[in-house]
Amino acid sequence: MQGAAVPGTLTRREEAAELGVFLLLILPTLVLSFVDTGASAVSFPLVASATIARDVGLVALILLLIARDRQPVAAIGWVRRHIGRDILIGLALSVLLVIGAQVLEAVLRAAGLSSPSSAPGLAPSGLGEVILAVVLVVVVAVAEETIFRGYLILRFAGVFRSRLSAVVASSLIFAIGHGYEGGAAVVTIGLTGLVFAIVYIWRQSLVAPVVMHLVFNLLAIVVAPLLSS
Predict the structure, then answer these.
(1) Closest CA to 153 of 104, 98, 202, 83
(2) Whole-angstrom distance, CA of residue 212 vs CA of residue 228
(3) What is the pTM of this model?
(4) How many CA atoms lie within 13 A of 1 on its CB side?
(5) Are the beta carbons of 141 and 210 closer than 8 angstroms?
(6) What is the pLDDT of residues 9-63, one digit of tens each?
(7) Domain total of the chain
(8) 127: domain range?
(9) Contacts with 10 (C-beta within 8 Å, 6 or more apart), sequence order
């Protein structure tokens, strides 16, 4: 599989050490998504603001790490070529992704996998919260693709010496962070992350996956609550 990752200046041991420290920062909170902490009682603005701050901080850390390692942002998928084409590809694939994810999750729930017991405080109400939700969706799409596709695939590929293993590992970690949505959603999100990764490797750019991620979350976080209210 040919990908967007650019060979770096780190040794395998250095990549493993850097990756290990980064995973120690993110994995505890991802695993805690499987624990019911009563997050549904927390207001949407608080959840959204905390998520935005966390994701911006993680992206800033990644930029510092690759700058220290003397790697260009192209190493994590941020390239300028074919942006318009990749946006169109992302929009077209979003339709198939949304339909496929809904069908798969319904099948998994019918097969007995769990559904979420409560929503994690992500239901905007009022114009101000809707605007905040849109900002949240944009930040999450850009940040999570940078983290899970751009950075983690780059570092896992360096450690495993296999881009296929890197894609699988990054997709599994991506799925872990959605435990609050139930087993059916965790499997669906994991496979969705795998699709994002395949598109990223195919296009050698994060633009299309970001667009797909943005559309997916926009429908779930902004459009669906508005239609149901």
Answers:
(1) 202
(2) 23
(3) 0.91
(4) 21
(5) yes
(6) 789 999 999 999 999 999 999 998 887 555 556 789 998 999 999 999 999 999 9
(7) 1
(8) 12-18+39-228
(9) 18, 69, 158
> Alpha carbon of 161 to those of 17, 78, 156: distances in Å?
15, 22, 8
Q: Which of 140, 145, 187 is nearest to 170 (CA)?
A: 145
> Taken in order 42, 48, 49, 52, is the CA torsion positive or negative?
positive
Tell me the residue length of the chain.
229
Q: Which residues contact 192 (CB under 8 A, 6 or more apart)?
A: 97, 101, 216
Tell me the two tokens of residue 132: 């905040």
Residue 23 lies in a domain: no
Q: What are phi and psi of 48, to 5 degrees?
A: -65, -45
- Dist. CA 80–CA 45, nearest whole Å: 33
Q: Answer yes or no: is 7 within a domain.
A: no
Q: What are the residues whose beta carbons fall under 8 Å from the beta carbon of 62, sequence distance 6 or more?
A: 22, 76, 146, 147, 150, 151
Two tokens at 209? 């996956």
Q: Looking at the domain assignment, is residue 85 inside a domain?
A: yes
Q: Is residue 60 part of a domain?
A: yes
> Distance (Å, rounded) from C-alpha 163 to C-alpha 185?
25
